[in-house]
Amino acid sequence: MTNQKHQFDASPVLVEDMAPVLRLSLRVKPAHRASLGQALGLDLPTRVGARVAAGGTEALCLGPDEWLITAPEGTDLTTPARAVYADAPHSLVDISDREVTLRLSGPSVLDLLAACCPRDVAAIPVGSAARTVFDSATVVLWRDGPTDFRMDIWRSFAPHVRALLAQVQEEFVAGL
Amino acid sequence: MLLIHCPYCEDTLPELEFTYAGEAHIARPADPSAFSDEEWRDFLFIRTNARGPHYERWRHIGCGRFFNALRDTVSDRFLMTYKAGEARPTLTQEAAE
Question: Do you know which InterPro entries this protein is assigned to (chain B) (predicted)?
């Protein structure tokens, strides 16, 4: 995949493709959360939307028994997880290629997201994340700064989301 | 926009993040092979079709969880939501008003 930067002239929001990362979907019962987190070197958060990072690895709590783990490509997390499988049964699935990630940054990024997300994006705390919908496409929004977001989009929905982002940006430029 | 409280996220979020999933508290048959055709018909198709407070299932896209809600089918007001697996709460007078 190419990492092409889209610099729209006079655009208030910068939309960038991010480099591929390792993405893992982890499902484990709450009773085994702590021991599995220990094996992965992460204290898996329990509050939905909370994130924790250690080294280059980051875990996001998506649901009561569901976590999304990202790490640099080539990181081996399956071997330590497999070692504790007998004591902490779980499902750890590589979903790296299921999604593409866009970085959205700029002063008007909240307006851009508000155009297509029904959720109050401004209320997402900095340093947390949320799985939500972007014009009916399920996306994961990571808020890294007040006006700095990452958005994981399912690959097949990406053209639709990109087209909408471009359209809303055009409206911003036109002053609508 | 209609706002729904998710008992797992403990947050009140817009309706577009949720999906309706039918009536709640319909127990699967313990011994399906012993079911007669009439019992199967009732289990599969016969519903309360309530006018007023209705116990129903919803799914939240954010946390991927099914939960139960008590919604008034006349006013579309959500009287309460509670986690799946919890006992059916009784409708109190305050909630109904």
Answer: SoxD (IPR006279), SoxD_sf (IPR038561)
Q: Does A30 touch chain B (CB under 8 A)?
A: no
Which residue on chain B is closest to A65 by alpha carbon?
A: B63
Size of interface A-B (CB pairs under 8 A): 41
Q: Which DSSP state fits B86?
A: S
Q: Is B40 part of a structural domain of the chain?
A: no
Angstrom CA distances, B80 to A115, A118, A147, B92, B95, stand at 29, 21, 35, 11, 8
Whole-prediction pTM value? 0.87
Q: What is the CATH number of the domain that holds B92?
A: 3.30.2270.10
Q: What pLDDT digit, counting tens, does each position of A70-83 carry? A: 999 999 999 999 99
The tens-digit pLDDT sequence of chain B (97 residues) is 899 999 999 999 999 999 999 999 998 999 999 999 999 999 999 999 999 999 999 999 999 999 999 999 999 999 999 999 999 888 776 555 5
Interchain contact A125–B (C-beta under 8 A)? no
- pLDDT tens digit sequence for B85-94: 999 888 776 5
- What total of structural domains would you count in chain B? 1
Most A CBs within 10 A among B12, B18, B65, hence the mutation to make, goes to B65
Question: Is B35 a member of any domain?
Answer: no
All residues of chain B having their beta carbon less than 8 Å from the beta carbon of residue A64 are 8, 63, 65
Q: Which of A63, A118, A138 faces B8 most closely, judged by CB atoms?
A: A63
B2–A contact, CB cutoff 8 A = no
Structural domains of chain A in order of their starting residue, each with its CATH number: 5-19+98-173 (3.30.1360.120), 22-96 (3.30.70.1520)
